[in-house]
Amino acid sequence: DLDECAATPCKDHQYCLNTDGSFSCKACDASCVGCTGEGSDKCKTCASGYMKEDEKCTDIDECNLPEKVCVKENQDCVNTPGSYKCVCSEGFEDKDGTCVQT
């Protein structure tokens, strides 16, 4: 078997999987920017919104940072993979960028 992966035939956001007589390109984990294999522990570097923790790229919970990220009144922070979003608190709705009571 010729190791086609030695010639790095895959794109930057993929890793190469050598198979008998061939190879396949597999997508890197969403937490990675470039990778050497499957999973968040094989990242070359962590994607934005992720940090290296115990040799893995893990999501940063922006909602638990000391500095508040959702600063408008009556607004709650919702953590998402690699990011976060600001939503109006319960009983409030977004009206032209302001959370007003419903």
UniProtKB/TrEMBL annotation:
Highest rank taxon of the organism: Eukaryota
InterPro entries named in the record: EGF (IPR000742), EGF-like_Ca-bd_dom (IPR001881), EGF-type_Asp/Asn_hydroxyl_site (IPR000152), EGF_Ca-bd_CS (IPR018097), Furin_repeat (IPR006212), NOTCH1_EGF-like (IPR049883)
Keywords recorded for this protein, A-Z: Disulfide bond, EGF-like domain, Repeat, Signal
Gene3D superfamilies per UniProt: Laminin
SMART domains attached to this UniProt entry: EGF, EGF_CA, FU
Source organism of the structure: Pluvianellus socialis
Keyword Zinc on entry: no
GO molecular function: calcium ion binding
Family: Belongs to the CRELD family.
Keyword Repeat: yes
Domain EGF-like: 59-98
Pfam families assigned: EGF_CA
Signal peptide (from-to): none
Name this protein carries in UniProt: CRE2A protein
